[in-house]
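Input sequence (134 aa), recorded before submission:
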Amino acid sequence: MTKGTHGSTFGGNPLACAVARAVLDEITSPGFLEEVQRKSKIFKQELSRILDQYSDIFEELRGEGLMLGLKCKVDNMELIETGYDQKLLLIPAAENVIRILPPLNITDQEIREGINRIETIATSFQEKINSHEK
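Predicted structure, token format:
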């Protein structure tokens, strides 16, 4: 690499370095990653239950840790837009997947609330599917 071939607007910025250090201190603190694994297990169990209950809408649970996704049988963008109505921010991914990316420090209460909102969205879509079948 020669001088001027690589640059970074905030590289080495004291504030950015302090934030990076604080994040590293937090994620390497005793028990932090174990707690993330525990929360991931709860999320995966609940999403698996939703997957089974709403098999007309979802076909697969994907992901590791708290970086999760639900592959959809219906248009993922329609689910995402319905999520906005529930104050739930979901992100589209390839292969008709909705990504679920909660923060690592999400609380158990917030997990329950998010799962409830996803279930509300699924119920709404199931009702649409059922009404079209009649």
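Checked by second reader. The first strand starts at residue 58 and ends at 64.
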